[in-house]
C-alpha cells in the first residue's frame, strides 16, 4: 500500500551536523535538492534515513520507530514500512535553492553578555515549506496483530503536528504537520504505553512593555578588528543622495581599496567638489546653433526693385547681429517690429545666416538636479555660471558649499563601514572555505601524501598555516586513506562551494532588507540642513530580528518578524539557573535539574520552546517605535557624535506574539523539573524574564499570559492527576485529553504549582553577598546581595524638553526654508503620519539611566576609564560596560523603564539658535558680548547644569506658528506634570544601593536636570521613591509563600548615607533648585 500526503513545515527545519552550516543536500549536492527521508551517502551515522533508518551501531533509530516505541512500548514491526519519501516541492524552492540563515549567540553566565566564538549559524528550510510525502507499507504485515490501528494513530500524531524533525527541536525548529487522508481506519484501539503523555502550553504576550530582539546583522562584535579591508565603491553606494553620474566618477578615483575610513573621508572632501565641477562643465559644453541678421544682409534687403523701405529697415536695426536660437523665435520678433508689414518677415528670415558655436553655457537644469539631490544651495547657479571658464574657481565655491553636507555623508559612510564590519565574517568564511577547497583539490589530485599529512611542520604551498592547522585538527580522527575517498572529497568540495554561494547571496538579501525605507531613520539634510527625511537617513543601528519564510500564495520567500525559540529558551534557562543557584547553591544536583529540563550536549531537553510569531503580522509599521541613544560627553554635556545609536523596537497592546511549549512523557521523576518550569512560567507572567536586548534600558520585560493548555495522556490515573487534580478527561483516540483556555488554563498552572514540591524552603540558605566570578567582578549567575524593585515618581519643576524621535510632528516652510516643530518624546512610530492623537508621552529609559549614571559617576568618583573587565570603575560595574576585545563586556545590574506621564501639561516654546552670549551670573541673566556659555565643572571632569530660571530669550508661544527659521520650536512638559517608572536592581552591595538611592532622590532642595536646553533653564525634575517599592526575599519567593510575604518594604530613610557620596558638597551646591 502506498500512502500519499503533504508534510508542512510549521517551523523552520534544519538537518545537518554540528560542523556544517548548510542543510544537508541530496546526492552530491550539485543540484542543491533537499528531502527529509532517505539515506544520505557518507560516513556520518547521523545521516541515515531519518524516518525508518538505523545507525550502524544501533544507538540511533528512525523517527517513526522512535515514536512507535514511545506510544506502544515496542519496536516498529520489521518491514511494515518499507520506504518513506519526503521531497520538497518544486514551487517551494527559491531561485538559487538556498534558504534562510539562522544565527544565535551564547551568553556568558557571569557577564550576561555574548561569549566570544560561541555563536552558531545554520541554514534552515523556510517555514511553511511543503513536502510531497509518500509512505510504502507492507499490506500483509499491516493486517497482523494491532499494526493497522497502531500505524493509524501514529499517523494521527503527525497530522496533529506533534512531530519534530532534525536539529534544534528545543529551540523552535523542526515541527511538522502531515496532511493526509488515511485510506484505512483502526479496527479497535491498540494497547498503548502507560507512560506516554504530552503537555502543550500556549502563551502570548503583547508589546505593551517595549521589546527589541535585535537582528545579528548590522552589529559589530567587539572581537572583530576595528577596521577591515573595504573598497571605496561600497562606501559610495552607501551614500544614497549621490546622483548616479557623480557616484560613477567618484568611483573611478576613490572607489578602490582604502587605507582607513578617515583617510577616505578626506579624499571624498577633496574630490566631491572637483567631480561636481567637472561634471557641470561637461554638461554645459557642446555645440550651439543660432541665426543672426548681419548689417550687410540688412543693407541688401533695402536694395533692388522691391527693397524694404527705410522705415522698415530702421525698425529691424535693433536685431542686427542678435543671435536667435530658432527661426521661429526670429520670425516672431520680426513680425512684431514690422507691424502692418509683418508679411515681409519671411524675406528677412531668408536673409539670416545660420551659425554653429562650439563652446560652453552653464547647464542650469543639471546643476539644480545635483543641488536638490545632495542638498546644495540652488541659488549658487549664477555664481557658478559666471565662472564656467575657470574650473578652479568653481571648485572653490563648491568646496565651501559641500562642507555643509559632508557631515551627513560621513554619518552614512560610518554606518556603511559598520554594516560591512558587521558582516565581515562572511568574507572571512569565504576566504577560509576557498583554502579548504584548495586543500581538498590537492588531496584529490595526490599532491599531499600521508607522510606530509602526518608531518606537524608541513604546510602546503599557497595555504595559510593557521588554516592548514585548523583543517588537520578537524580531520584528526579520520584515517588518511578514508580521507582520500574521491566521492566524499568531491561532495565536500561541492558543499564548500555551495556554502560560499549561500552566505554571499544571503548577505545581499540582508543588505537589501536593511536598506528598505521602513528600516531607515530620519536625518537632517537639504540645502539648509533642516529638512528631516528618511532620504538623508541610514539604517537603524538595531532592528528587530527576522527570517525568510515561504509564502504559499505568492510562491516566493519574504521576511517575517519573529522571536527565535532559542532566545525564549535562553531567557528561561537563565532565570531558572539564577533562581536554583540562589536557593540551592552551585551543586551537581542543581545542574542536573537544569540539564534535564533544558537539555545539554547529548541529552534531549524535556521542554521544547517554539519561536514566537505575531498573531497579526499586518500593519506592522504602526507598531514600530524609535528611540535615540546618545552618549553624552560628561565634561561638556554635549552628545558624542560617534556614540549615537538609534533603535527600532516593538510597542503596543495590539502587537501580540504567541508561542508554545511542548513537554513529552512526564514521569514522577520529573516533578522537580516541572515545578521549576511552572515557576518560570509564573515569573514570565509577572514580567521577570526579559527577552532580547537593551534589558537595562527597560526593553523586553514583557508580561505573558497562558492562553491555552492541552494535556494528553494514555493513563488517566497517572501523573496528570498530580498536576491537574480530579478533572474530567475526554477520550480522543489513544489519548485521554484535557483542554483549557484563558483563565481556566492560568488557574490550572497555579493549582499545579501548589501540588508540586516547592523549589525552596524558608530554611534555604541564601547568601547575603552578591556572587563573584572567578575574575573577581560581581556575577549574574545567581542572585545575592540587595535585589528588588523601586517604583519612582518624577515631578517636573521647570519646563522639560526631550525631543521626539524620528520625524517632527509639525512642519512648515518659511522664506523657502523648512521649519520644524518638535513634540515631546512619546512612545510612537518614527513616521509622523502614523502617530495617533493619543500619544503616550514619556521620559525615555535611556535618558533616565543616563541622568542617574552621570550623578552616580560623580558620587563614586568614577573618573578613570575601566581598563578591562577585572578592573571596572564603580559606575561601569553597576550600570554595565563594553570594552574592546573578546569577552570584554558586562551587563548592568540595574534596569530602568520608560517614565510614562499621566495627562501632562504641554506648551510651545521658541528659542533662537544662538544663545552663547547669555550668562546667568549674580542671580540674573546677562547678555555678554562675545561671551561663551559658562560651565560648572566638578573635579574638572563632570559638567553640571545648574538650576536657573528660563533665560530672557526663551519665548513661550501659543502654537506652532513660526516667524523666523533661525529658531527652535518645540513643545515642553510643564511644571507640576508627573511621571512614573520602575527600577529593577539585583546583586547590589549595600554601599551601591545607598549611593543609588541618594543619586536618585537626592535631598530636599536638590533636583536633577534632563533633556535639551538645560543651560537656558529647561529640564529641572525631582524624583521620589514610592512606598510600593520592595526588596525580594528569595528564600520565601519560591517556597509557596504569598506575594506580600516575599516582597519586603524598603525604608528609604535608613538607606540614606551621605558618607559614601564622593564630591558631596559640590553636588549639593550644583543641584540646588532655590534659583527656580
Could you walk me through the main structural features you see in this protein, from its secondary elements to its overall organization?
This protein has about 1100 residues and is α+β, with helices and mostly antiparallel strands. The chain has six domains: about 190 residues, no CATH class; about 100 residues, no CATH class; about 60 residues, no CATH class; about 110 residues; about 210 residues, no CATH class; about 280 residues, no CATH class. The protein is built from 30 helices and 41 strands. The strands form ten sheets. Strands 8, 13, 14, 15, 16, 17, 18, 19, 20 and 21 form a ten-stranded antiparallel beta sheet that branches. Strands 22, 25, 28, 29, 37, 38, 39, 40 and 41 form a nine-stranded antiparallel beta sheet that branches. The longest helix is centred in the middle third of the chain and has 32 residues. The termini are far apart. About 0% of the residues have low confidence.
